[in-house]
């Protein structure tokens, strides 16, 4: 957890400086205006109380009855003000949340941030929770607590004047000195509240850190459950229930251990808050003794003083009452701040990429390193000419996938330059991405939109990779990742390549889930449909060598560049089924 600092609060600012700021300030102004009006009605209620109780205890029944309509009117007015204020607050909160979420999503889904957050050196746990929950909580709590604070200040000012007026000056002599304390009722209330606030911060302070950790552990539990949902089949095949139970026991143990700290600090804070609440009335009674002795305290005056004291005390103890909520908000702000810090952290850019306008791929002075700086492998200066087919091989863990990540701009550890037509290149990973809850057209056209290609094109590519049986389901919306087998997913990924028709295709064990026959089919389709494309494959299977003309054999000592003999390079077509 980052150290708590004032800078945590800066995540609140951007919306109030954005293009929406004038509308936001207008709404905030409206809410604050309504809050002033609401306090004003409370002052009227106070005055009404004094008139009513003085009339009541003077047995002036007619006066009491005549005061009732004005009470009803004030009640209706104050309710209307309150309802409208809540409505405006909800609208502002939602607008703020939407604005913030859009910004966060844009940051998250650009420059491969979503990838870096999972695989980079600097990581922020559970970004989903930060974007979906923390942002919403931040706007709700900031507005609630901020507006309550403003209302508390307004109330305090209004009723401090009343308390100051009614309280008058306390005069007494001490060691022969005449002491006069003007507005003593007000001063007594302020001092008692300040003292309690200091005690509270001293004993309840660690609640912020404990809340921060609690959110982190809760999010881990949720992410773990999502993991099980996503990998249910794998877990079931392994019979991994026990292992999963053990994992969740650990999450629960974290939650339970931290929860004890939360409870300890919460009860401390609550005890202090409650003690202050309960003893505040005694404080008023003690402070009113001089008035009682001077016979200047009427029932009506007591009622008004009590109401004003309660209002002033309530507003002064805003910090005390909202301490635990403030602690929650502070921990949410810390989580958002940490997210922003990690997102803004510069991406390692030792390896640079340039765009070419031809189908060539140029590799210059390339050294691939691990994040800790140790060298994985090196490559000589090399040009893969347009239309050539290259195979990357080497022992497991040598850096084959890392080379493709560097080509895709996802790996910056190392040095050197990679150049190719980045706009017309396509990367095919081992596990293709199959978005759920979409039509098959959308799955196939990903990452473009379905209207990018006509129906004929979809049908044709499905036939080519032998998924013709899905043609009738092009417009079905389904969780396709649950429907396709891993081999079908890989065939679908090749169908995507055929649709997109890239100039350069990078395949990272893209046919590993298929049997030899089907693997051969996909490579045959690729080479016959895209004869001009430059093909770079990471592949283990020897039967794929014949589809390539050159090999880059990676080893710890460097890369060996060698041709693949003519006799190996032959293609054949075969069949596959859905
Ligand atoms: N995010 C990362 N942080 C630290 N090390 C990493 C990271 N990603 C990969 N590595 C390391 O880099 C090395 C190369 O990994 P890579 O996936 O490129 O190997 P590979 O040659 O493709 O292996 P395989 O043939 O088994 O797929 C491995 O030792 C791996 O542990």
TrEMBL record:
Q: Where in the cell is it found?
A: Cell membrane
| SMART domains xrefs | AAA
GO CC terms, sorted = plasma membrane
Q: Which domain of life is it from?
A: Bacteria
ABC transmembrane type-1 domain residues are 30-328
**Residues passing through the membrane, by range:** 24-45, 65-88, 145-164, 184-203
Per UniProt, the keywords (alphabetical) are: ATP-binding, Membrane, Nucleotide-binding, Transmembrane, Transmembrane helix, Transport
UniProt KW Transport keyword: yes
Q: Name one GO molecular function term.
A: ABC-type transporter activity
Question: How the protein sits in the membrane?
Answer: Multi-pass membrane protein
Q: Enumerate the spans annotated as ABC transporter domain.
A: 361-577
Please state what the protein is called.
ABC transporter ATP-binding protein
Q: Which organism is it from?
A: Acetobacter cerevisiae
């Amino acid at each position: 957890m980052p150290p708590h600092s004032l800078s945590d609060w800066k995540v609140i600012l951007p919306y109030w400086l954005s293009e929406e700021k004038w509308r936001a300030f207008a709404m905030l102004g409206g809410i604050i205006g309504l809050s002033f009006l609401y306090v004003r009605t409370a002052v009227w209620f106070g005055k009404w109380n004094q008139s009513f109780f003085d009339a009541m205890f003077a047995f002036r029944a007619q006066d009491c009855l005549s005061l009732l309509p004005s009470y009803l009117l004030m009640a209706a007015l104050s309710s209307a003000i309150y309802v409208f204020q809540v409505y405006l607050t909800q609208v502002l909160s939602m607008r703020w949340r939407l604005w913030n979420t859009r910004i966060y999503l844009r940051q998250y889904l650009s420059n491969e941030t979503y990838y870096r957050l999972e695989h980079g050196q600097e990581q922020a746990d559970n970004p989903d929770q930060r974007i979906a929950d923390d942002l919403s909580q931040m706007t709700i709590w900031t507005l609630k607590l901020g507006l309550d604070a403003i209302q508390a200040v307004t109330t305090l000012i209004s009723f401090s004047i009343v308390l100051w007026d009614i309280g008058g000056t306390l005069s007494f002599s001490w060691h022969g000195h005449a002491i006069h304390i003007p507005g003593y009722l007000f001063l007594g209330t302020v001092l008692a509240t300040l003292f309690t606030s200091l005690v509270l911060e001293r004993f309840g302070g660690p609640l912020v850190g404990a809340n921060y950790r609690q959110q982190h552990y809760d999010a881990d539990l949720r992410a773990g459950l999502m993991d099980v949902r996503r990998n249910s089949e794998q877990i079931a095949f392994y019979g991994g229930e026990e292992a999963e139970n053990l994992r969740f026991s650990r999450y629960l143990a974290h939650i339970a251990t931290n929860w004890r700290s939360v409870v300890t600090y919460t009860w401390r804070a609550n005890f202090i808050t409650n003690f202050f609440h309960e003893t505040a009335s005694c404080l008023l009674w003690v402070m009113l003794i001089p008035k009682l002795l001077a016979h200047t305290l009427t029932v009506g005056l007591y009622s008004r003083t009590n109401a004003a004291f309660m209002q002033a005390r309530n507003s002064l103890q805003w910090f005390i009452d909202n301490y635990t909520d403030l602690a929650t908000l502070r921990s949410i702000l810390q989580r958002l701040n940490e997210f922003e810090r990690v997102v803004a952290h510069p991406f390692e850019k030792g390896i640079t990429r340039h765009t070419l306008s031809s189908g060539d791929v140029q590799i210059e002075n390339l050294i691939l390193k691990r994040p800790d700086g140790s060298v994985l492998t090196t490559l000589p200066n090399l040009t893969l000419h347009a239309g050539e087919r290259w195979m990357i091989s080497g022992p497991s863990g040598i850096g084959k996938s890392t080379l493709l990540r560097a080509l895709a701009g996802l790996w910056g550890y190392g040095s050197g330059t990679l150049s190719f037509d980045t706009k017309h290149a396509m990367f095919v990973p081992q596990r293709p991405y199959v978005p759920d809850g979409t039509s098959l057209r959308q799955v196939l056209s990903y990452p473009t939109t379905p209207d990018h290609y006509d129906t004929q094109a979809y049908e044709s590519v499905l036939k080519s990779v032998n998924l013709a049986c899905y043609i009738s389901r092009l417009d079905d919306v389904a969780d396709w990742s649950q429907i396709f087998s891993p081999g079908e997913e890989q065939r679908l990924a090749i169908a995507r390549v055929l649709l997109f028709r890239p100039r350069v295709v990078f395949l990272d064990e893209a046919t590993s889930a298929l049997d030899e026959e089907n693997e051969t089919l996909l490579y045959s389709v690729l080479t016959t449909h895209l004869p001009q494309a430059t093909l770079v494959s990471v592949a283990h299977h020897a039967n794929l060598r014949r589809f390539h003309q050159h090999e880059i054999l990676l080893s710890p000592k460097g890369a060996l560049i060698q041709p693949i003999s003519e006799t190996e390079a032959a293609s054949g077509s075969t069949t596959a089924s859905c």
